[in-house]
Every structure is written in structure tokens, then in C-alpha cells.
């Protein structure tokens, strides 16, 4: 008999439907589920993997297949990434799902970052910091940990980071029609006026959306923003700059980074760093988004106003009584968010326990297991003592 | 009345000393002015050249000089060669034209014949003008044992493609068709036998060559020994062949070239008129096979010709997982029409031709059952094609000088819409001045 029995075909059909439903059920919520240590398997041609590691300072893409949670994403573009964290042994990676087909995506994402965590012996700073900023209401990338294997070999623990792109903008702001810029650190820059020449702004602010706009359309608004920050009279500062930059979200982000003792952020020790700038359509005020928080938790007694004097934007915001008062309110709000119910301690402990075994087994991390344990212990000290220090600093400075 | 040549020379003399003292932009402007001035000098000389009757052979002490051929008795003939092409880009609607002028080709060389049996040619380029990998162009010796059997050794074009084997200074357009540029091999070092048989109706060419194929792997002896040689063959049939100007010429040909490609990003690529790549480099490994078919019909004033070309590359062990991939396939074709609106048939006298060509180059993999991607290890390489219309006019002022202008319309076709490319047609206009011996 050539045809299968009807019941058999029904069973097969039901099984296929169930399997399909299971696949469809996967979303970014599953991928960024903080309760789970994710597992990613990457398959690349062995020559490509060797070439990527040999040329780890280049940004060349190589094709790869990526498997996660029963799903297999094919023809993904993969490249080495990072600045100080670039590493030939345990390369930081960018997975670009749309690299080889503009129609391709993974769970709606066009890209993912695999942070190699080589600059953070605790391996959990980035994730805890971004989680804390989101708790404050700051649009910040979602981060989870994953055990990553490449061509069947365990390659260690990575941070899976949601990229800041048009998908991110849609998710947090409900639109992505404006221009998103990634700030690139070139020299110590403290929000001074870079000058009239638009070419000066090009290497500093790389467009990540609307890349085909003219140089004038891309950079004239940036030039005018920093001109206004620097040249607006004190009496008109709040009104003039406020028309170009959203003070509330900017102060909230800086307050969060301050509580986290961010060494390399908006008020970084060597100038502004690690942020994206988004200029929404219809001349709405610009917003800043945080990026790369692996230098947070610098020290429990990291000064509240570190970098505030050097940075023109922050200095002038603090000179405005309304903005100053709002900033200190937001710092206290952030401190409370970190300390209430031991939230930060709990967060750090959960992340540590989740990755501890995998981190110990990580063969490519550039530090020892003792370093990992010590770094976590330091974070716990930070979480317990930082709130009181910040509160005291607020009292002293407001 | 002022002589325009004298005026242009005076301008040249005035501008030349200024060059070191002025800025970069100004120097560029001055250089362009110098080139225009040179063009004016040459152009103004053309009517004079054109009006000069064909030089009669001169003879002195057994040495005859006829045009650019020097004959030493009956035993030795020498033919100095030189070519100078200056290109002027008039319009490109993709990017603003920054520098209008460029050298299309600058070559010198010498050819000749010894004792009616041995021919030779040595040619060197001072401009990368022919998709070649060294400055040496044709460097070969040929022994003519009979009309049916001649042997050539050295460096020269492989026997493939009607348009590729046509000298650059005799092309109907500024550039060869996209498909010809992409799919036909460049020069190589080797040995070839060729000849005409069957009352000159059938011509054959068969050769064996080093596997250069534009690859820069000559320093790796292991690669060469592993790759082996390139085999090339071409058979042409001219069933109607008469040069009396009243009857018609007909020509057909087929060709095959086969070689082995080393593992790597070594696929051929398609290029736009401005030389930018529009196809991705793909990983290949294994046999490369080129097939070609050509046809031409030449009437009293009308010439129609065309070619079909295909290149397939094996991709052994090139998938992401290291397994074999379906062959990479590039296909191309063109049809050219030439109408002689002024002048006699032939290539050397005064003439004006109006030309038009349609050509297409497409790129994909042999198996299209999978989802298409552009990555260099894709199982189904997302198809991409370029359609090009070229319209032109060629004014052959005399045997040495000609002016050519082309209007080019290029359109990229991405049927699955998986690339971030502009599929709107783009237009380019360009002119060429050529002086060739």
C-alpha cells in the first residue's frame, strides 16, 4: 500500500505542528532570559576561524552557522570586535545576521555582540551594570551569559549583548526614523566645541542608521548641539540646550553611571566614551544610550563628581540650579534602586552562581579562577558599601 | 590668422614653469589644462594628417620604410609599436566626477618578422590597461612551419573570446563587454600551436599555459606544482570569407579553457564601467572551466557580432562545515552592432562608425534549491546580474589617430532583493583620444 494510514499522517502532522509551534515560540525574551545560562554553538570553516584569530584586529566578516536552543541560523556574518578587549585567543565577536542577506534576521535581531569578557575577571560587570541602568528606566542593552563553543570546542563564557541599532530603537522608543550615531573615542574629549569643520565630526560620530545622508545632514545638527552646549549664555542654557538634548534622560543615565562608579563612560577619566547618540526625527531632542560597561564598579569610594568639572556639558548642567537639583535627586533614586532589598547584591550573586562552573572551565580566559573569585568578592564589597558613600557625597555636594 | 597649434604650444610653454610653485588643486587644474592643450595640438594636427596622402615606400641602401614598417631587404621586417590613450570622463550619475582625465593605455613595443618564418613581438605597458598582472604584455616568438602549423611560445593572450583577442586599440567601444572582462582569461606564459586548414576555412588554436589566471601566487612553488597547467583550445570556422568588399564575411567559433584554482577567495568578479566590483569574491577550490561561443557577420557597412561565455568554478570542501558546495557559475553574453556611416571597409582609412552593444553578466551557483545568500561560502549564491547598454561613435581620422565616445547605461539586477544595492540604471559618458602605431 503506497499511502500511509490516515491516523499515521495525522500524528506526523501534529508532531510537525507542535515542533513548528515550539520553534515559533522562541523570542528575544527567551534569548535574554536572565535565569538561564545560554548556550551558543558556532560552526565556521576551520580556515576562516584561523584567519579571524590571526587577523583579530581586522573587521572582516566570515560566514558561520549559529545554533541556539534548537534553532539553527545559517549564513551569519561573524567578525572580531572590541577596542581594548580585542584578543586573538578568545576573540570578541559580532554576529551579523543580515550581513549576507538584507532580509535575514534572528528572532527579529539583525545582530548580536558576543563580549569576550577578557577585561573583567568577574565576568559579570557588564551584565549587572546594564541590568541596573534598565532598572532605572534607562534604555540599555540586554545582556546574558552564554557558554560558547566553536566548531565543537568549548570557547568559554561570553556575554551576549543586544546591539544598539534600529531594532533596539524600535523596542525602547517605538521608532527608529532618526539618526543613530556610535561615538568613537579618538582623543580625550570633554564635550567642548570641536569646531566649524564638519569633517572633524565624521570619525567621532559614526552613523548607524541613515548612513546615506549627506555629511551636512548628518553632522550639522551635531555641530550645533556642541556649539550650543559651549556657547549658550548661562541664562538661556537650559532652554537652548534642552531643545537639542533631552536633559531628563541624560541626567538619569549619568546618575546611574555615577552610582555604578563608571570609569569609562560619559564622564570618563579620559574623556567621554562608550555611548551612542540618537537624534530622533522632527528635531526632537537627542538622547544618549550607554554601551560597554566593563569598567563599572571601579571602587566603592569613586567620587560622586569625578569628571564633572572637566566635562563642559556636565559642568554647565550642574551650574544650573534646576538641573543640579534634578541630578542629585536622580542619584539618590539610583542609590535606592541599587540598595533596596539588596537588589544589587542579589543580582551580582545570581549572575556569579549562574556562570561560576562555566567560568572555571573557560580555557581561554586571560586570568585564573582565583582572580575570578577575588573579583566577585570585590563586587560584593562594592554593592554593600557604595550606597552609603554616595549618599554622603550627595549630602555634601547638593 | 593665428595658428591654433602655435597658440596651444605657447600655452604649454607658459604653464609648465608654474607647476612646481602652485598648490595640489591648482597643479591638477594646470595638468588638465596641459592635457587639453596637448589634445588641441594633436587635434589640430589631425586634419593635416588626414589630408596627407598615404606615404609612399621610401628606399635607401636596401632599407625600405613604409608607414611604421621598416624592411631590411627581404629578410628582416621591423614594426615599432606605440599606443597612447587618453580618457575623458564626461558624466557619471553615481558619483560626481572628480578627476576627468585618466590614461587609458600607454604602451610601447616592437614586432617583426625574420626570414619569412619567424615572427616576434615584445610589448610593455606603462598603465594597467588590460586586467593583466605584469607590465609585460605580448612577449612571444612564433615559428611558421606552414600555414597549417605554426608554433608560438612566450607570453600572450589565451585563445578564448573574440573580443578579448581583439587588440585594445581596435575595440568598437572604450571597454570590452562586462562578460568578456570577467570571464575570459588574461595573458599567460605558454606554448600554442595554431594554423588554418581546409582551404583556410577552419582555424585552430591549442595551447598549454602556466596557471596564472590573474592570481598573485607565483612566489609559492607548492601552489604551482599542485595546480598544474592551463589547457586552452579554440576552433573557428569562416564559411564565407572574402575581402573584396562586396561579399559578406561569416565567422563562428567555440573555445574551452580549463585549469585548477587554488583554495581561497579566488572567484572572478564582475566590474562596473568605473572598475568598481559589483559581485562578491567567493571561495573556490578545484577545476575552473571556461566555455565560449562566438559569431560574427560582416556586411558592406554593417557588422553584427556576439558571444556566449560561461565560467564554472568547483568549490570542493568550501562549505561552512567543510563539505563540497555546488559549482559557482558565471554566465555572460553580448551582441554588438556596428554601422559604418562614412569611409571604406577596413580598419586603416578614415571612417566613422556608429555602435551599439547590449551585454549581460550573471552570477550564481549551480544549485538554487536552498535559501539565497551572498556569503563567500553560500550553498545557493544569491543571483546577481548586470545589464549594460553601450552606445558609441568612433571616428578614425587616419591610420594612427582616432576619437571614440561612449554612453553607457548599467543596471544591476538582484532578483531576490538580498543586497543593499541601487538597482536603478546609472549613466556614464566618456571619450577617448587614441594615438597608435
Structural class of the secondary elements of chain B? mainly beta
Number of strands of chain A: 11
CATH topology of the largest domain in chain B: Porin
Shape estimate of chain A:
globular
Strand content of chain A: 15-25%
Share in β-strands of chain B = over 45%
- Largest interface, and how many residues on either side? A-B, 18 and 21 residues
CATH architecture of the largest domain in chain B: Beta Barrel
Poorly predicted spans of chain A = 1-23
N-to-C series of helices and strands of chain A? HHEHEEEEHEEHEEHHHEEHHHH
Q: Low-confidence parts of chain B, pLDDT < 50 over ≥5 residues? A: 1-55
Strand order of the largest sheet of chain B: 4-5-6-7-8-9-10-11-12-13-14-15-16-19-20-21
How far apart the termini of chain A lie comes to: 87 Å
Give the terminus-to-terminus CA distance of chain B: 32 Å
Biggest sheet architecture of chain B: 16 strands, antiparallel, barrel
Structural class of chain A: alpha+beta
Net shape of chain B: globular
Largest sheet of chain A: 7 strands, mixed, barrel
Number of helices of chain B: 4
CATH homologous superfamily title of the largest domain in chain B? Porin
Write up what this structure looks like.
The complex is a heterodimer of chains A (398) and B (437). With 398 residues, chain A is an alpha+beta fold. Chain A has helices spanning 6-24, 28-31, 46-54, 125-135, 166-173, 215-231, 237-242, 247-259, 312-319, 321-339, 343-361, 369-397; strands spanning 38-44, 62-68, 71-81, 92-96, 111-115, 143-150, 153-161, 179-183, 205-207, 275-279, 287-290. A 7-stranded mixed β-barrel of chain A has the order 1-2-3-4-5-7-6. Residues 1-23 of chain A have low confidence and may be disordered. Chain B has 4 helices and 21 strands. Chain B has helices at residues 4-15, 24-51, 178-183, 221-227; strands at residues 58-60, 63-66, 69-72, 76-92, 101-114, 118-125, 136-146, 149-156, 188-197, 202-209, 230-240, 249-264, 284-298, 302-315, 325-343, 351-365, 372-373, 380-381, 384-396, 401-413, 426-436. A 16-stranded antiparallel beta barrel of chain B has the order 4-5-6-7-8-9-10-11-12-13-14-15-16-19-20-21. Chain B has a two-stranded parallel sheet with strand order 17-18. The two termini of chain B are 32 Å apart. Chain A binds chain B through residues 43-48, 63-65, 74-75, 77, 99-104, and chain B through 263, 283, 318-322, 371-378, 382, 416-420.
Amino acid at each position: 500500500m503506497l499511502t500511509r494510514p490516515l491516523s499515521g499522517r495525522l500524528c506526523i502532522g501534529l508532531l510537525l505542528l507542535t515542533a513548528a509551534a515550539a520553534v515559533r515560540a522562541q523570542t528575544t525574551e527567551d534569548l535574554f532570559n536572565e535565569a538561564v545560562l545560554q548556550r551558543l554553538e558556532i560552526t565556521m570553516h576551520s580556515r576562516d576561524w584561523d584567519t579571524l584569530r590571526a587577523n583579530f584586529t581586522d573587521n572582516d566578516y566570515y560566514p558561520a552557522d549559529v545554533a541556539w536552543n534548537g534553532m539553527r541560523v545559517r549564513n551569519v556574518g561573524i567578525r572580531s570586535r572590541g577596542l581594548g578587549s580585542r584578543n586573538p585567543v578568545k576573540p570578541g565577536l559580532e554576529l551579523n545576521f543580515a550581513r549576507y542577506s538584507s532580509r535575514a534576521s534572528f528572532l527579529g535581531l539583525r545582530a548580536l555582540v558576543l563580549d569576550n569578557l577578557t577585561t573583567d575577571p568577574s565576568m559579570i560587570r557588564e551584565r549587572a551594570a546594564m541590568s541596573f541602568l534598565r532598572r532605572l528606566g534607562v534604555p540599555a542593552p540586554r545582556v546574558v551569559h552564554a557558554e560558547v563553543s566553536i566548531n565543537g570546542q568549548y570557547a568559554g563564557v561570553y556575554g551576549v549583548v543586544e546591539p544598539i541599532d534600529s531594532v533596539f530603537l524600535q523596542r525602547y522608543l517605538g521608532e527608529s526614523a532618526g539618526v543613530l550615531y556610535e561615538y568613537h573615542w579618538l582623543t580625550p574629549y570633554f564635550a567642548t566645541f570641536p569646531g566649524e569643520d564638519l569633517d572633524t565630526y565624521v570619525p567621532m560620530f559614526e552613523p548607524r542608521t541613515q548612513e546615506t545622508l549627506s555629511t551636512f545632514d548628518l553632522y550639522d545638527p551635531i555641530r550645533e548641539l556642541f556649539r550650543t552646549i559651549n556657547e549658550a549664555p548661562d541664562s538661556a542654557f537650559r532652554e537652548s540646550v534642552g531643545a537639542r538634548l533631552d536633559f531628563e534622560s541624560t541626567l538619569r543615565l549619568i546618575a546611574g553611571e555615577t552610582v555604578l562608579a563608571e570609569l569609562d563612560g560619559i564622564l570618563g577619566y579620559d574623556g567621554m566614551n562608550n555611548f551612542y547618540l540618537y537624534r530622533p526625527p522632527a528635531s526632537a531632542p537627542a538622547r544618549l544610550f550607554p554601551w560597554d560597561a566593563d569598567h563599572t564598579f571601579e571602587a566603592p569610594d569613586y567620587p560622586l563628581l569625578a569628571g564633572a568639572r572637566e566635562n563642559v556639558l556636565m559642568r554647565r548642567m550642574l551650574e544650573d540650579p534646576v538641573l543640579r537639583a534634578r541630578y542629585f535627586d536622580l542619584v539618590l533614586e539610583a542609590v535606592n534602586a541599587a540598595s533596596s532589598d539588596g537588589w544589587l547584591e542579589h543580582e551580582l550573586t545570581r549572575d556569579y552562581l549562574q556562570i561560576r562552573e562555566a567560568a572555571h572551565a573557560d580555557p581561554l580566559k586571560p586570568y585564573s579562577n582565583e582572580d575570578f573569585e577575588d573579583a566577585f568578592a570585590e563586587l560584593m564589597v562594592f554593592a554593600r558599601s557604595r550606597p552609603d558613600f554616595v549618599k554622603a557625597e550627595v549630602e555634601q555636594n547638593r | 590668422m593665428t595658428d591654433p597649434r602655435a597658440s596651444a604650444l605657447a600655452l604649454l610653454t607658459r604653464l609648465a614653469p608654474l607647476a612646481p610653485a602652485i598648490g595640489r588643486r591648482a597643479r591638477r587644474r594646470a595638468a588638465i589644462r596641459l592635457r587639453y592643450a596637448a589634445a588641441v595640438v594633436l587635434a589640430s594636427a589631425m586634419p593635416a594628417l588626414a589630408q596627407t596622402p598615404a606615404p609612399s615606400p621610401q628606399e635607401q641602401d636596401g632599407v625600405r620604410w613604409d608607414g611604421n614598417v621598416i624592411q631590411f631587404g627581404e629578410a628582416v621586417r621591423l614594426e615599432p609599436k606605440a599606443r597612447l590613450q587618453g580618457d575623458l570622463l564626461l558624466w557619471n550619475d553615481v558619483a560626481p566626477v572628480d578627476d576627468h582625465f585618466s590614461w587609458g593605455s600607454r604602451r610601447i613595443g616592437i614586432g617583426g618578422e625574420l626570414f619569412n618564418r619567424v615572427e616576434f613581438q615584445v610589448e610593455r605597458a606603462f598603465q594597467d590597461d588590460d586586467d593583466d598582472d605584469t607590465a609585460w604584455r605580448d612577449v612571444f616568438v612564433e615559428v611558421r612551419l606552414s600555414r597549417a602549423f605554426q608554433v608560438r611560445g612566450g607570453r600572450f593572450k589565451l585563445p578564448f573570446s573574440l573580443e578579448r583577442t581583439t587588440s585594445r586599440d581596435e575595440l568598437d567601444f572604450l571597454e570590452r563587454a562586462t562578460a568578456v572582462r570577467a570571464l575570459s582569461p588574461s595573458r599567460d606564459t605558454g606554448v600554442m600551436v595554431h594554423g588554418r586548414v581546409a582551404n583556410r576555412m577552419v582555424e585552430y588554436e591549442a595551447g598549454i599555459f602556466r596557471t596564472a589566471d590573474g592570481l598573485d601566487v607565483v612566489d609559492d612553488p607548492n601552489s604551482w606544482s599542485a595546480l598544474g597547467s592551463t589547457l586552452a583550445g579554440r576552433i573557428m570556422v569562416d564559411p564565407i570569407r572574402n575581402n573584396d568588399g562586396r561579399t559578406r564575411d561569416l565567422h563562428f567559433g567555440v573555445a574551452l579553457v580549463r585549469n585548477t584554482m587554488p583554495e581561497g577567495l579566488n572567484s572572478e568578479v564582475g566590474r562596473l564601467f568605473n572598475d568598481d566590483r559589483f559581485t562578491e569574491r567567493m571561495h573556490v577550490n578545484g577545476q575552473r572551466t571556461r566555455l565560449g561561443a562566438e559569431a560574427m557577420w560582416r556586411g558592406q557597412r554593417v557588422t553584427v557580432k556576439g558571444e556566449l561565455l560561461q565560467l564554472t568554478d568547483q568549490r570542493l570542501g568550501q562549505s561552512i562545515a567543510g563539505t563540497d558546495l555546488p559549482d559557482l557559475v558565471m554566465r555572460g553574453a553580448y551582441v554588438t552592432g556596428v554601422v559604418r556611416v562614412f569611409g571604406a571597409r577596413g580598419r586603416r582609412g578614415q571612417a566613422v562608425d556608429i555602435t551599439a552593444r547590449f551585454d549581460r553578466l550573471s552570477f550564481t551557483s549551480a544549485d538554487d534549491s536552498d535559501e539565497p545568500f551572498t556569503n563567500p561560502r553560500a550553498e545557493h549564491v544569491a543571483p546577481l546580474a548586470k545589464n549594460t547598454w553601450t552606445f558609441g561613435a568612433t571616428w578614425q581620422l587616419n591610420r594612427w589617430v582616432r576619437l571614440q565616445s561612449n554612453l553607457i547605461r548599467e543596471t544591476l539586477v538582484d532578483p531576490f532583493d538580498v543586497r543593499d544595492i541601487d538597482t536603478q540604471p546609472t549613466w556614464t559618458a566618456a571619450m577617448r583620444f587614441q594615438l597608435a602605431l
